[in-house]
Amino acid sequence: MGPLNGIRVVEIAGIGPGPFAAMMLADLGADVVRIDRADRVRDEIPDTPHFDVLNRGRRSVGVDLKHPDGVATVLKLVEGADGLIEGFRPGVAERLGIGPDECLARNPGLVYGRMTGWGQDGPYASMAGHDINYIALSGVLGAIGRAGEAPVPPVNLAGDFGGGGMLLALGMVAGMLESRTSGRGQVVDASMVEGSALLITMIYGMHGLGAWGSRGTNLLDTGAWFYDVYECADGEYISLGSLEPQFFAEMVDKLGIDAEGIDQNDRSTWPEMRVRLTEAVKAKTRDEWCEILDGSDVCFAPVLSLAEAPEHPHNTARGTFVEVGGIPQPGPAPRFSRTPPQVARPAPHPGEHTAEALADWGFDIAGVAALQESGAVK
Questions:
Q1: Considering just the CA atoms, what is the radius of gyration of the chain in Å?
Q2: What is this structure's pTM?
Q3: Is the peptide bond before 123 cis (omega within 30 degrees of 0)?
Q4: CATH fold of 8-199+321-374
Q5: Do the Cβ atoms of 32 and 5 come closer than 8 Å?
Q6: Residue 160 catalytic?
């Protein structure tokens, strides 16, 4: 059982970062009940798992949050919960009757987690947005890309997941830990603007010291020729990150680069050395470079596709990827020596566990039947 075994969390279904936070808590052993909209519950639940692997590890209860008994159902669940996660725009949960005031009145020790892009207040709070907008405002997007080119969105990793869901998961764990001592709950306001800004703290520090210039000209953003990706003879790519002198020396040796008399940090040499390295890498296939560079201290790895990564020998040796419900996906992390995390179950279909989960959380059979009859749950 994972380290959060015994923790109970109510998740109000959303998309992206909220489900990712709930997935992390469930992977670590928490009993997370996902509240899905009743109108998304099918009359017949398919035999195969739901496709959205972010919803893995928890049970789904279908609830009509516009039905007074549906709201009452959520509040009763809250009474036995350690935490709640919601990802509505500011004010929506309050209008539904499941905001922090209502929930903390039922359970003063509850940690109420709120996931938004802009935060609960401020000039942008009520605006719609997505990952790309949040990381634009935090300065993250403007820092990513090659010199002279437009910024490149790092898919939705920095806002939705790193700066959003992971930050909320940390906030929930910290809040629930504190609540165990104080007996008092609180609200966790996690925003993707602030979370993504936090992720780039080191770069802000370097910028403040005058050690970080414009996009694509720096040590870690493809400005340096010895920290970049290069195309191989077969059109595939390898990554090189030979920052330290000893790693740099091994790189130029194993790749056969003429770097005699070259000062690694002399930026005037970077354009010419980039040409030399480009030509050297282009002379061999990715597999040939793996044969040469695997096991070395060059700071190297092949650039793998989503289909290739689960099959790489290092990832298979570590069990980095798992198969759940027939779908390969990243496994729980980090590792724990005594209380290993695990995926408890595949992603549920909306409402798949309504009766089962409510019963486990203290609802009597007759009460669940009455809720189903009224349409409050499905």
A1: 25
A2: 0.95
A3: no
A4: Rossmann fold (3.40.50)
A5: no
A6: yes
